[in-house]
Here is the input.
Amino acid sequence: MLLPHLKKLQDLDVVLGSGSVRRHEIFTNMGLKYRVVASSFEETLEKSTRTPAEYVRDTALGKANALAESLSPKPQLLVTADTVVVLGERILEKPRSLESGKEMLMSLSGKTHEVMTGVCIVTFANDGSPSIDSFVEVSTVTFAEIDQEIIDVYLEQGLQTGKAGAYGIQDGLGGATFVTGIEGDYFNVVGFPVHPFCKRLSQKIVAGAL
Here is the structure.
């Protein structure tokens, strides 16, 4: 999808506004050349007044707006994202402690949950004004019943650190073994929805927005 446009993209100044190692790996594997600038936006939005999709979209927008204002000179392309796990209407972000990580994994055990990623694709006019295209991608993941002993070992190895819902589907003998089924974009569960992002970016190039 992006292959015909890869040379053009590699010549652009692209900023990835994320400190996520997994997103860095995904961007690198897509063949994109980019630099990382972490956003100063604090991820403390009120959850009770937003649906999970609104929350993850607004967090990605907050990151994008903060960087669009602070970056100088402006890049040609800025990308931000935020990922959460959703069980029912409960939003699970990164665990703050071993106890919270254990509680998250026990609550997910034997159930089906959603992984939502909000993404913002930002381009800039000649005067520096931003144009923001945002979307939310949803994947569905089903967990097997997980023994408490397995959860304890997983947490002892620190594999939950920095991961929404306290697990990473890419974690080999860790989080990957919890999953019995997935519906939707696999990379969305990892932390960045590759297919819808590439589709939108390709459309922007064809339309002359980049």
User: Anything to note?
Assistant: The chain has seven helices and seven strands. The radius of gyration is 18 Å. The mean pLDDT is 92. Strands lie at 14-16, 35-36, 77-87, 90-92, 112-124, 130-143, 179-183.
